[in-house]
Amino acid sequence: MRTDPAGLAALRDAIDRLDEEIVTLLARRLEKVKQVVALKKEQGLPIYHPAREENLISRRREQAREAGLDPDHVEELYRCIIRQSRMRQTAHVAQAGVRPGATVLLVGGQGAMGQYLGRWFSEAGYAVRILDQADWPAADALCRDVDLAIVSVPIHATLEVIRQLGPRLPAHCLLADLTSIKREPVAAMLAAHPGPVLGLHPLFGPSTSSMDQQIVVATPGRDPAAGQWLIDQLVAWGNIVLTLPAAEHDELMDLVQGVRHFATFAFGRFLAERQVDLGRTLEFCSPIYRLELGMVGRMFAQDAALYGCIITASAERRALLKEYVASLHRTLELVDQGDAEPFHREFEQIARWFGPFCEQAMRESTFLIDKLVERF
To answer: Which of 77, 198, 282, 315 has the smallest number of Cβ neighbours within 10 A?
Structure first.
């Protein structure tokens, strides 16, 4: 029977005791976090303090170097600790509303996003009402004395719902929408409702467990001062709120969402048409291929109606998709020459256009790939 080398058991016991100390220290750190939460709730301070977090990371990296440790490893560890701390703070602060007792009407509140927001508003002390398809006969009563009405319905129904809703709302009510395009919905809200108007676009879905550092785009409509409390509430829940004019928002989303989702759909369709054996390809794939294929599969695991609305959202978006397809044809012509030299020239020219972002993209994608390798 083989026995452990002399002293090995004692060293393992020592490591176990150190691990126990680490967990104990994390628990003590958590107690301090709870005290921070209490102070922030009392003083109305924001959860996310990026400068504080980055300073902390820099100090821990320097400490790691002095201790002979890998700074990248220590940074990864502390980013995990900080995120858990921030999420815990967000969960506690979320229970206190910026305007507790205010009445919120969620139009489309039975949908996934409506239910998601309903839970957050309810837990923060708001009175939440739901107006869904079957509730329109009672719409006048549901709209009475509401302080905030949020339209959370499919893109194709948004404008008509706003037209029907606007005249029923009190003059003081803040009217907002969650649509992923902003020009037409904001214009429709301004036309239908004389009170304050704010366009919103959450860049996350209802499957998100936390709003911590999630991005919400806010598009000004009317009377921004009257809508500031809603932005403050989103920030209190951990969101990063960015303000953009409607036209700029839609132009950016045509690329960020429209073209990206279209390209993902097209790749998935191509694989399905060829009846590719996905399992077999995964056996021999690189981590980056697994990551890319995972993003394709993620799309098809979700709602077809949602992505259909996003991809076909506007005439401008559909025109951009045609431009993208025309670019693909030109790229195919380049490849079809069978000469690598023109491709190399084009590749290098595009790389120069991307500039410093290439290095950033390498760092970020390498991090994701490393995490994927650890997982699988």
So the answer is: 315
Q: Given 3-state DSSP classes, what are the helix, strand and coil percentages for the chain, each rounded to the nearest 5? A: 65, 10, 25
Answer yes or no: are the C-beta atoms of 334 and 346 closer than 8 Å: yes
Q: Which of 153, 192, 150, 156 is nearest to 175 (CA)?
A: 150
Tell me the per-residue pLDDT of 251-302, one tens digit each, with 9 for 90 and over. 999 999 999 999 999 999 999 999 999 989 988 888 888 889 999 999 999 8
Report DSSP letters for 161-196, one per residue: HHHHHGGGS-TT-EEEE--S--HHHHHHHHHH-SS-
What are the φ and ψ backbone dihedral angles of 110, each rounded to 5 degrees? Answer: -85, -10
Kindly give, in sequence order, each residue whose CB lies less than 8 Å from that of residue 58, ignoring residues fewer than 6 positions away: none
Show the domains of the chain with their CATH numbers: 8-93 (1.20.59.10), 103-244 (3.40.50.720), 249-375 (1.10.3660.10)
Q: The tokens of 294 are what?
A: 């995972």
The answer to whether the predicted template modeling score (pTM) of the entire model surpasses 0.85 is no
Measured distance CA(185)–CA(199) in Å, rounded = 8
